[in-house]
C-alpha cells in the first residue's frame, strides 16, 4: 500500500482535495513541520502497535509521547510497538508515511485527545512526501477511528 491507496481512500471519502504533496521530505515530525511551515505539535503522528497480536494505530500530536501507564490502563496490555521493518507488512504503509488512510483491513485506529487542542492537524498522506490538512473531527470521521483515547503525555 502507499500514497496511492491513501489518496484513493481520501478521495472516495470526499477529502482528496486536502492532500498536500510536498517537495521536501516529511517522514519525521520535524521534517513535516518544516515542510508545512507549521508547529511540530500540529503534526498528527501515527504510531503503530501490536495489541494482543493485532496491529493498531494511535494518532497523536507531534510532540506527544505514549505514556505506558495510560496505555496499559486503556488497553489492558503493555505497549508494544511494531518493529520498524515490519510496519508495512502489518499496516500497509512504510515508516515515515504511516497514516490511518488506505490501511490494511483489520487495523484499528485510535486518536489521542492531544489532537483536540488544534483547529487543524496534519497526518501523513501515505508516504514521506505528503500530508493531509484536517480538523480533528474530520480526522476522526475519515479515519474510521474506533474512539478517542488519552494515552499520551508531553
Brief rundown of the structure:
This protein has helices at 3-12, 29-36, 68-75, 87-91, 136-143; strands spanning 19-21, 43-51, 54-61, 65-66, 108-112, 122-123, 130-132, 147-149, 152-153. The protein is of the alpha/beta class and 154 residues long.
Order of SSEs: HEHEEEHHEEEHEE
Please state the overall shape, judged from the principal axes of the Cα atoms: globular
SSE class: alpha/beta
Number of strands: 9
Q: What is the terminal separation in angstroms?
A: 31 Å
CATH class: Alpha Beta
Strands side by side in the biggest sheet: 6-2-3-5-8
Total number of helices: 5
| Content of β-strand | 15-25%
Output the radius of gyration. 14 Å
CATH H-level name... which superfamily?
Answer: YbaK/aminoacyl-tRNA synthetase-associated domain
CATH domain topology: YbaK protein
Low-confidence segments, given as residue ranges, are none
Q: How many domains comprise the coordinates?
A: 1
Largest sheet: 5 strands, mixed
Helical coverage, percent range: 25-40%
Q: What CATH architecture do you see?
A: Alpha-Beta Complex
Rounded average pLDDT: 95
Describe the structure.
This is YbaK/aminoacyl-tRNA synthetase-associated domain-containing protein. The structure is a single chain. The chain has five helices and nine strands; from the N terminus they run αβαβββααβββαββ. By secondary structure, it is of the alpha/beta class. It has one domain (3-149): YbaK protein, CATH 3.90.960. The strands form three sheets. A five-stranded mixed β-sheet has the order 6-2-3-5-8, with helices on both faces. Strands 1-7 form a two-stranded antiparallel sheet. A hairpin with a 2-residue loop joins β2 and β3. The longest helix is centred in the N-terminal third of the chain and has 10 residues, at 3-12. The chain starts with a helix and ends with a strand.
